[in-house]
Amino acid sequence: MSGADRIDETWNEQGLGACSTEVLLGTLRHHGVTLDEERLARAAGVAEALALAASWMRDWKGPGLSAAILPVAVLELWRRLTATRPREGVGATGLPRAFHECFMFAPLDTRLALAREVAADPRFEAEDALALGRGLRGVLRDAGRGAEFEGVLASWEARVPQVYRAEPALLGWRVECALERPGADVHGALMGLAAWRGHLVPLLKLAEWCLYRGHVHAALAGLTAAWPGVRDSTRLFGWDVEDFAQRAVFTTLDAVLSREPAPGEPGLLERLAPFGPLAAGWLDRALAYRAGEWSWQGTLELWPQLTPEQFLFEQQALVMAFERQLRAHHGWPLGRTQLLHPWMLVLLPDMPRKAREVEKVAREPSTLLLPPEWVLHEWARPNSDSRYRHPHAEAAVAAALLPWGHFLRQLGLLNERVHALWRIRVTRALAKLPEQFSFADDPALASEVRQSLRGG
């Protein structure tokens, strides 16, 4: 049996520690690893030993041994060579710069092994994990191996939980990995991030990703767990807290709608109470419209007489009724449709106050139901902060604009000519919008927006 076979067999059955030192040395040298025992014995810590392993592997001949085993084998040798020597650097924090430089120039498989094994170094801290994660995340995704990144994060959680939980970016990446892998524990991953109190942007961003993909209960658990920290934060703007509360309210309603029978759950008002007061009658209207029990039956002639608040309710009622159509006829999952609130309503025109413009509304209701082309152009401009913070919500709005025109046409609110012009307006104004979603963390988002704007 060859040295490589002996290492592989012993490793699989008993662990690498069961291999004799002679077998380890002989096999590594047989495969082209230029081993220097004296330098290895002088290595100050795990990071330095791994950096030496990576440098020696440049002449590795493979494929008799995997790139994952080689650094581990060298590390095992280092532990044996230094077993009687006091460990240096006790109390120091942060991995040496030389390790990070070595890591960035190592082949991808070697990087994966280094990232997992360096967690055994007592100097390994959150900033190191963040730097190594950034060096792996994009490269693995580009190579079509994104699932392996989740394995690295899981190993850090198991071996150095205090480091893993100290950096919200790691927790957010874990949610992303779960969302991209069918059957993964999205709920548990999002709850891990929610425990990092007050970190609003990544949590809300990932909760909206969950909703876009239909993970309503996972999103609700994360939003509910994070709400006390968001509500009590002194670092957040008031409108950020309001946006978060609105998302939590709609997600609570979606959780209700996901069960049969849907509306009328006892104690619903009490469950919503922590997120702030609701306008009189809003809850009943929201449940009935979004469940499809009510269809919109507004009176256009009365619109000019409505206050701005009353008119906003009318627009909300239309959008809520529209949600049901998106689920029934366009295959949208429960959760995704709520992302139209408030972003689609922001695009819709306000009720004018001038008498001449009010008369035009009575003749052409489309002036209050369809955003002008300049508004769409402004909304679709590149480098939008809102698109960075809420990519899935904005993707949902973009995908809903063509069906919105069809919905209004069915209600008799648009004539055939206005509907046709609306389709031209949307496709022309948003022609370059899909490419902006190519920078989102969700790799499928850009193609989905592109398909929706083609009428797919």
Automatic annotation (TrEMBL):
This is Uncharacterized protein. The lineage of its organism: Bacteria, Pseudomonadati, Myxococcota, Myxococcia, Myxococcales.
